[in-house]
């Protein structure tokens, strides 16, 4: 676990592809518990450590996750996430070039609970939810394309489902049509940056999460950094 930012009220960590943010039926130790232990040891805290989950990333996804360390910050952060006041930027590696280098995708997603999968439609359906994202091509190699994704809504598997719907499934994402898995069992989707106004101090917080330790990710990080 890598801590990207910490103060009295919140902590931002870089999640790896294998970790779950919050406990589930697998019984695996969630990232929230790992962070609690880290805080307890670092700050020599007796008793239980307060930690609030403000949002989640799918298990095979890596990147920045924000937790609240106080009961004062938690409801404020929850409301900020609900109202879209927290800007989240993702990087996704796909094998096929999107129809345009930049664009807005709008679909209506229907979630299938049994399959733990969402399906995208171009028109509204029963039980569907509107999903909107902005994507931009920011780098490419001989075989892959790196997209920067700005989420306008937060739906179940939204980025994975919408990119697959335009014929660009994310590298390693077998569930949404990619032909083979990644070595680490994850998918090439990374929560790259999170930006928001601190819920207590009101100062601007901008956190960038380094990409996973993977040859292709590192190459793209280098290319993109050199283009700026």
What would you say this structure looks like, in words?
- The chain has 228 residues and is of the alpha+beta class.
- The protein has 4 helices and 11 strands; from the N terminus they run ββαββαβββββαββα.
- Strands 1, 2, 3, 4, 5, 6, 7, 8, 9, 10 and 11 form an 11-stranded mixed sheet that branches.
- β8 and β9 form a beta hairpin.
- The longest helix is centred in the C-terminal third of the chain and has 13 residues.
- The mean pLDDT is 94.
Key terms:
4 helices; 228 residues; alpha+beta; 11 strands
Rg (C-alpha, Å): 18 Å
Name the beta content range: 25-35%
Averaged pLDDT:
94
Look at the helices and sheets and give the structural class. Answer: alpha+beta
Question: Distance N terminus to C terminus?
Answer: 28 Å
Q: Please, how many helices? A: 4
The biggest sheet amounts to:
11 strands, mixed
Instruction: Please state the overall shape, judged from the principal axes of the Cα atoms.
Output: globular
Q: How much helix, percentage-wise, in residues?
A: 10-25%
Number of strands: 11
Uncertain regions: pLDDT < 50 for 5+ in a row?
Answer: none
H and E order: EEHEEHEEEEEHEEH
């Amino acid at each position: 676990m890598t801590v990207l930012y910490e103060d009295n009220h919140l902590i931002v960590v870089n999640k790896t592809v294998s970790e779950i943010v919050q406990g589930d039926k697998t019984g695996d130790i969630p990232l929230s518990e790992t962070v609690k232990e880290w805080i307890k040891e670092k700050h020599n805290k007796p008793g239980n450590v307060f930690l609030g989950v403000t949002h989640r990333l799918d298990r095979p996804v890596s990147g920045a996750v924000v937790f609240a360390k106080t009961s004062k910050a938690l409801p404020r952060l929850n409301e900020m996430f609900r109202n879209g006041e927290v800007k989240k930027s993702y990087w996704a590696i796909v094998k096929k070039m999107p129809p345009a280098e930049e664009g807005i995708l709008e679909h209506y997603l229907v979630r299938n609970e049994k399959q733990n999968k969402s399906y995208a439609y171009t028109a509204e359906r029963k039980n569907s939810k509107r999903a909107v994202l902005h994507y931009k091509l920011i780098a490419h190699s001989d075989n892959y394309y790196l997209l920067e994704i700005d989420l306008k809504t937060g739906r179940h598997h939204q980025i994975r489902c919408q990119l697959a719907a335009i014929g660009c499934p994310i590298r390693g994402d077998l569930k949404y049509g990619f032909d083979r898995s990644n070595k680490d069992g994850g998918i090439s989707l990374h929560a790259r940056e999170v930006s928001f106004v601190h819920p207590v101090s009101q100062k601007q917080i901008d956190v960038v999460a380094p990409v996973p330790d993977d040859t292709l990710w590192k190459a793209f990080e280098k290319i993109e950094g050199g283009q700026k």
